[in-house]
User: What shape does this take?
Amino acid sequence: MMEVPKGFHWESLGLKMAEVFKAFGDINRMKIIKLLASNPEESLCVVDLAEILKITQPATSQHIRVLKNIGVLVPKRIGNKTYYKINADQLHEYKDIIDHMFKMAFVKCTYDGDCDKCPLKNKC
Assistant: This one.
């Protein structure tokens, strides 16, 4: 069985992205992303999202918390309600990282993943 070397920079990247993949791994969270990303000028509150998704407000609040934790949602307090917009820059950054990870997954590493020995030093 192949082991990942200690100097392998993908380990830290993988840990960071595991939280993102977990957040993206729920259909209701993906629906929230779709609703807000496809209407960037619009913001929605928990009540609005719960009604659209046909789930409870506490469940909606939990989904929002997860998405806020990875930086995908931006809250804005207006009166006694908090409205959420998509953080498109963060979403695009995650897409770029995912694209890079999949692209590089098919590239054989001459240094067996030991980034300390590689002249590219974590730039692959």
